Amino acid sequence: MRGNFAAALFYKMERCCHCPSAVLQIWQWIRHGAHLDDGRHIDYPLFRQLLEEELQKMPAYLPAQNRLAEAVALFDNLVQATTTEDFLTLNLTH
User: Cα separation of 10 and 79, whole Å?
Assistant: First the structure.
C-alpha cells in the first residue's frame, strides 16, 4: 500500500481497513469450520484454490509495476497464522 492507507480500485477509493476485515473473516471461517452455501467446507486448501482463481484475473486490473506478490504473501501469511495480530495494517507500511 506504500504507506498511503488507501488505494484507488475501479475508480473508487478503498481504505486499508477493508483488508484486515477480509483477512479476519477468512481466518475465522477457516478456524471455525464454516461452510459455503453450496456445502463446501472452508479450509486452507479451498482458500488457496479460490485465491489462485482470483489472481488469474488480477493482471488485467493492475499496472505492470505492482506489489501484488508481496500483498498475496502477506495475505496468505495472515490467513495461515495460528493467532491474529492486534493491528494487521502495521505490516502494510514496510
Answer: 25
The SS3 call for residue 17 is: coil
* The pLDDT of residue 78: 87
CB 35 within 8 A of CB 41: yes
Per the CB < 8 A criterion, the answer to whether 30 and 47 are in contact is: yes
Taking only the tens place, the pLDDT of each residue in 15-35 is 555 567 788 889 999 999 999
CA dist list (Å): 1 to 6, 77, 91: 7, 17, 10
Q: Residue 85: which of 6, 24, 33 has the closest Cα?
A: 24
Q: What pTM value is reported for the model?
A: 0.70
Contact at 8 Å (CB) between 1 and 75?
no
